[in-house]
Amino acid sequence: MINDAWKEYLYENILLKNEEIHLLDSSENHGIVDIPIVKKTTRTRRTVAVLTLGLNCKNTPPNSLLKEFSSTKTKKQFELTNETYEYIRNGWIIREYRLAKDERTVISEQYRMGLSLFHYKKQVENERASEKMNSFLDWKDQWNKTKLSSPIPNLKRKEKLIRLKEMLDEIVTVDKMNEISPTWRFQKQLLFLHFLVAFYQISIIEQHFDWKQIGARHYRRIGGSKEFDSYKKEFIESAEELLEYPLHLLGLSSLGTITPIYFTGQMQGESVSYKHGPIHATTDLAVFTEDFQTNAEVLWLVENRGVVTRMAYEKNFLIDSKSIVLGIDGQLRSAHRRLIEQLVLQVKQVIIWTDVDEAGLIIAKAVGAIAQRYPVLTKWVIPPLEVVQKLEEFQSRYERAIDVQKEEQEQEIGGVELWGNWINH
User: Fold this and answer.
1) What is the DSSP string of 111-140?
2) Bridge partner list, 76
3) Do 398 and 354 meet the contact criterion of CB atoms below 8 Å apart?
4) DSSP label of 185
5) Segments of 322-382 assigned E as strands
6) For helices 115-149 and 186-203, what crossing angle results, to 10°?
7) Rounded to whole angstroms, how far apart are CA atoms 378 and 359?
8) DSSP 3-state assignment of 281?
9) Which residues have a Cβ under 8 Å from the Cβ of 58 and sit 6 or more positions away?
10) Phi-psi category of 367—alpha, beta or left, where left has phi over 0 and alpha has psi -120 to 50?
11) Are strands 386-388 and 377-382 parallel, antiparallel or unpaired?
12) pLDDT tens for residues 230-252?
């Protein structure tokens, strides 16, 4: 009455433990079959459900059903109409009655994905996977041709372009590609790879170029200059994070977006010197073109600009404790990473202080990962205004604090006595 494919599908996806199809008591009516499901134990055997399914097999189900049933585990409620019967008859859905112990009383009625719908979704998934693989292989082939026809001249930016080349060479599978930006859709990830190739392509030839030239040179067709416009900000930020270097210094004309980095304390570079006193600001371009030095022994890495402002008022504390306070300003960027890496080599300890929320936890862990690569004492501030030195303890206690009450740094900021205790703890 039903074929082996149906039987296999029901056993793998619909039936529960110790349940079996009982075909002897099944009945058929106009291409629709009612099949009792029995459950066997060592002592009993009783009917626990009835499945209603269709013997037809039509290939293309309506889009509404594709959206309704995301997996074989999905259970839906439908009104039993002529249209619903057609869905059942065509094998797209299964009606499932669950019965009480008396084997007659219906305790639930639900609809499940049928074999035809399952096969169709698998076919669509396979086609999409094939399309993804083909488009990825096309990109890979394009990259191989680009790098062979575009040797890197002896530019100041050569080191960074070689690094970009090595990164693109490492992306030999779709799985490796997913590591770049795992939260993005495939098409966005692929477009980002095209952006990286396009940027590499123009950066080895042009000393200076603007945003529109990147896509125009790469695609060489009408509209090519606009290909990357939808994700302009994200692509620039992601590329800078990968390379740990501003794209401005690799030839991209300034887009009017210079990232400020706020701090208070003593620091000097090759062309500038900052003393204790007010809040200072440097930029991402300065950080990547100069090597900054400090005489400080304690590097404070705080999430909010307001905390930097508050600590700047305590000039004597900063001088006496030999502290420098760097503001992450809500988002850890490549310039912050670069400056932290420069300063952490010169201090004795790092104190990390962020908001008590999910974003603060992410920033604190990321900053801690940078600091812990160097021989420096690393501490994290946790509620209620204490410090710990182990990442595992910090994360555990921070997550508990987030569950209790989220709060910003400025709500509980303490003062010089407390800050001094943290340094000496």
Assistant:
1) EEE-HHHHHHHHHHHHHHHHHHHHHHHHHH
2) 111
3) no
4) -
5) 323-327, 349-353, 377-382
6) 10
7) 20
8) strand
9) 90, 91, 92, 116
10) alpha
11) antiparallel
12) 999 899 988 988 888 888 888 88
Q: Name the band, by pLDDT with cuts 50, 70 and 90, for residue 408.
A: low
The three-point CA angle 140-141-143 to 5° equals 65
Position of tokens 């030195």?
389
The distance in angstroms from the start CA to the end CA of the chain is 77
Residue where the block lists tokens 């169709």 = 120
Q: Phi and psi dihedrals of 210, rounded to 5?
A: -100, 175
Q: What pTM was estimated for this model as a whole?
A: 0.65
> Measuring CA to CA, which residue among 42, 12, 189, 209 is closest to residue 112?
12
pLDDT digits (tens, 9 = 90+) for 127-163: 999 999 999 999 999 999 988 887 888 787 888 899 9
| Token output for 230 | 């939808």
Length of the chain (residues): 425
Question: Is residue 267 helix, strand or coil?
Answer: strand
One-letter amino acid for residue 73 of the chain: K
The tokens describing 72, both together, are: 């074989």
| Strands (DSSP E) found in 311-398 | 323-327, 349-353, 377-382, 386-388
